[in-house]
Automatic annotation (TrEMBL):
The organism's place on the tree of life at top rank: Bacteria
Record's protein name: DUF2200 domain-containing protein
Origin species: Hydrogenophaga intermedia
Record InterPro entries: SP1917_dom_sf (IPR023204), UCP033199 (IPR014580)
Length: 116
């Protein structure tokens, strides 16, 4: 099976796009980072290191300290695809993150986004 091209996208570029999307909807880069850290287990320093290290998405998720145990509660559609039905584990993680950032941009409360 061929490797999906999105896996080689630079996380720093994706992060910048997430921040832009959030800011267009009057949300903050801090909220974006909070979501990313919640999902992946990175702390602020680890997240900065991933951004500055120019790692790709595959490396970013491979080096993540731990995926949050409540990721199974992330459900819904992103780009016409149900995140809970994505078979490839790496693509599912990417879609989880996309879904959470979409929820942020749509004005959802952080408590709900973080499945608390």
């Amino acid at each position: 099976m061929a490797r999906h091209p999105v896996f080689s996208y630079r996380f720093a570029k994706i992060h910048a796009l997430y921040v832009q999307k959030a800011q267009r909807k009057q949300r903050t880069s801090e909220e974006v980072d909070q979501i990313i850290c919640w999902l992946t287990g990175y702390d602020a320093a680890g997240l900065r290191q991933q951004i500055e290290g120019e790692n790709d998405l595959e490396t970013f998720f491979a080096e993540a300290p731990r995926m949050h145990p409540n990721t199974a509660l992330i459900k819904g559609v992103v780009c016409g695809v149900r995140v809970e039905e994505v078979e490839d584990p790496l693509m599912r993680k990417i879609r989880y993150l996309d879904k959470l950032i979409d929820e942020l941009a749509k004005g959802k409360a952080m408590e709900k986004i973080l499945r608390q």
